[in-house]
């Protein structure tokens, strides 16, 4: 494969307040340009910690994180790395800072020195895509949780980062909002944006090119969604759900019915059932 845009080499991390207890231990992973990675794991497995290491918000206590050839622990590259790797947090209140939605979308671009004309173009474009045009003059604190999350995502997308890291971005959204976000991520992927998605939603994970599973701070699995969700007993043991299509197959197999092997999508079931009918 090509040179990775992000390389994590023997990385460990401990939060100062926890002493020597490691949140992550000896993580090795590579992220390649244009791919979508789903980062899974039970609560406390280190997913959010790893996400924050990818754009320099946290620095490893051991090992190296290299972003497009730049070492995250080298202070001279901090802002360049954060320009390349955009971060969306689970709680939008952690990243909304402006008095108005329009100012929020402009905030990061102002820091990058983007021209006013280009800023207006991007704001108009991204607010339309994220269905925020009618809220541009609203204070973010007057919006619902789901609307705030869409603003937070839009403010990062307006920077047009090469890599987008999202920490459970749809957890506060209703089904319609979740669908809009996932369609936008699919659109970005098709245009070459690299995506690292931390999620508990297995229907989101099956969209990824590769799945990585953390368990107790260690990288326990890397592979395709098919490979991952074929490990049914292990996933259930560590507390992860299966995609609905896969869970249906598991239950039918328990009843002795012949079913397809590890279907991931409803379309897999349709493809299997139509010839039977």
TrEMBL record:
Coiled-coil parts of chain: none
Membrane disposition: Peripheral membrane protein
Source superkingdom: Bacteria
Keyword ATP-binding: yes
Residues in ABC transporter domain copies: 6-241
Primary residence: membrane
Keywords, ordered alphabetically: ATP-binding, Cell membrane, Membrane, Nucleotide-binding, Translocase, Transport
GO molecular function, one term: ATP binding
Positions of transmembrane segments: none
InterPro entries: AAA+_ATPase (IPR003593), ABC_transporter-like_ATP-bd (IPR003439), ABC_transporter-like_CS (IPR017871), ABC_transpr_CbiO/EcfA_su (IPR015856), ECF_ABC_transporter_ATP-bd (IPR050095), EcfA_1 (IPR030947), P-loop_NTPase (IPR027417)
One Gene Ontology CC term in the entry: ATP-binding cassette (ABC) transporter complex
Any Pfam family: ABC_tran
Subcellular location: Cell membrane
Keyword Lipid biosynthesis applies: no
SUPFAM superfamilies cross-referenced by the UniProt entry: P-loop containing nucleoside triphosphate hydrolases
Matching NCBIfam families: ECF_ATPase_1
Family designation: Belongs to the ABC transporter superfamily.
UniProt xrefs under PANTHER family: ENERGY-COUPLING FACTOR TRANSPORTER ATP-BINDING PROTEIN ECFA1 (PTHR43553:SF24), HEAVY METAL TRANSPORTER (PTHR43553)
Protein name: ABC transporter related protein
Species of origin: Desulforamulus reducens (strain ATCC BAA-1160 / DSM 100696 / MI-1) (Desulfotomaculum reducens)
């Amino acid at each position: 494969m090509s040179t990775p845009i992000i390389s994590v080499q023997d990385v460990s991390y401990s939060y100062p307040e926890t002493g020597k207890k490691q949140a992550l231990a000896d993580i090795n992973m590579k992220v390649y340009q244009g791919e979508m990675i789903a980062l899974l794991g039970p609560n406390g497995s280190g997913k959010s910690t790893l996400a924050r290491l990818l754009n320099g918000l946290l620095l490893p206590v051991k090992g190296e994180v290299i972003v497009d050839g730049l070492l995250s622990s080298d202070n001279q590259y901090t802002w360049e790395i954060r320009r390349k790797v955009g971060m969306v947090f689970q709680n939008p209140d952690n990243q909304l800072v402006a008095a108005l939605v329009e100012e929020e979308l402009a905030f990061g671009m102002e820091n990058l020195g983007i021209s006013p004309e280009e800023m207006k173009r991007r704001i108009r474009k991204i607010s339309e895509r994220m269905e925020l045009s009618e809220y541009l003059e609203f204070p973010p604190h007057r919006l619902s949780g789901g609307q705030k999350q869409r603003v937070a995502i839009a403010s990062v997308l307006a920077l047009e980062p090469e890599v987008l890291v999202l920490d459970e971005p749809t957890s506060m959204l209703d089904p319609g909002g979740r669908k809009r976000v996932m369609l936008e991520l699919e659109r970005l992927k098709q245009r070459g944006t690299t995506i690292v998605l931390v999620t508990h939603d297995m229907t989101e994970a099956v969209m990824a090119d590769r799945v990585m599973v953390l368990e107790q701070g260690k990288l326990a699995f890397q592979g395709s969604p098919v490979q991952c969700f074929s490990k049914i007993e292990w996933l259930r043991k560590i507390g992860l759900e299966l995609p609905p299509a896969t869970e249906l197959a598991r239950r039918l197999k328990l009843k002795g019915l012949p079913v397809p092997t590890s279907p991931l999508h409803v379309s897999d079931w349709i493809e299997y059932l139509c010839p039977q009918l």
